[in-house]
Specification:
Elements: H1 3-21, H2 27-34, H3 42-58, H4 68-87, H5 92-105, H6 108-119, H7 125-154, H8 157-177, H9 189-199, H10 203-225, H11 227-231, H12 239-243, H13 245-254, H14 259-264, H15 268-286, H16 293-321, H17 326-355, H18 358-377, H19 384-396
Length: 397
Amino acid sequence: MHGRTRLLLAAVCGVAVASVYAGQPVLGAMGRDLDVPVDSLGWFVAAGQLGYLAGLVLLVPLGDMLDRGRLIAAHLGLVAAGALITAVAPAAWAAFAGLAVAGLFAVVVQTAVAYTASASPPAERGRNLGIVTSGVVIGILGSRVAAGILADLWGWRSIYLALTALAGVLALLVLTVLPADARPRTVRYGQVLRSLGGLFVQPVFLGRGLIAFFLFASFGTLWSGMALPLAGAPWHLSEAQIGLFGVAGLAGALGAARSGRWGDAGHARRVTGIALALLLASWAAIGQLSWSLPLLVLGVVLLDFAVQAVHVSNQHTLTTAYPDRTSTVIGAYMVFYSLGSALGAAATTALYDAAGWTGPTVLGATLTLCALVTWAVTPRTTGRDVTRPQLERAEKV
């Protein structure tokens, strides 16, 4: 895979995922403008995550049937449409609808990851996945920095206008730059959906999926709730200042870029266990937010390093175990991601309203412990031989 192709796919991932997460540092401003109470602000993020969940089940499997390049371009265009609806929303219901549409088609990220996995030689798969999925981290965390700056200059709506323009430009670039991605054989949509459903009874897949659920619920707990205490006493930070915490997270996540190569070397399981232990340690530092910003920064770096390392290791393990259904397996895996992120986003604002920052801190640490327990009991085998008969049966139906 050429370097320019990897960079283009990383940019696709970054812009698409930003459409779901860019609102996190400006939740307060969105709520004030659209008359949404504090205990319901998490639904701005959850709406996108629920749309994302629907897209994972209904849209991502199309990548095992159609040219992924054209699919990526079409979905980017629809991400642009959802961002535009959000930008011009006159009321909360319209913003929720726009965010849900953007989230629905932001699953272009998984199609881009599947394209990367299928186009990469086995010895380079982890490296290429690490580079492309770094775009996801840049989109999630970098968008917070940009969102804070744009919101201070022109208001929160300017964030979604910028995303509309970026997604549209990338859709055109994909059509002109990305090599064709011909499917080796024709598979019916119903067959692909049945093979997706069959994955959920496989121990290795289920284990990695549950780890992702707890991992991203913990991640969402921090990033969906952190803006609230930072904006209040004793810090009283502006939206731009809150957005700068994304730089710390970005540094941590990019530090985990080599996790794909560790997976190529056969260390994916070990990397997952170490990273989850670091994630637990990060919550001890994050819990000190009320009196120490340096400790919060340290916790953010550790948390995002751990999340990226586990996420890349999970995808490397699963695309290696299910090489003939990369789109389907990634879509199914990301169902856990979406559910976890939505849970974290919705729960953290409600807990903060009820118990202050202690509530989200305890939740984040508890979710991490659940991920560690799941990792400890997950089988070590790849699952390839276990799942092949079921996938073949689904293809014959």
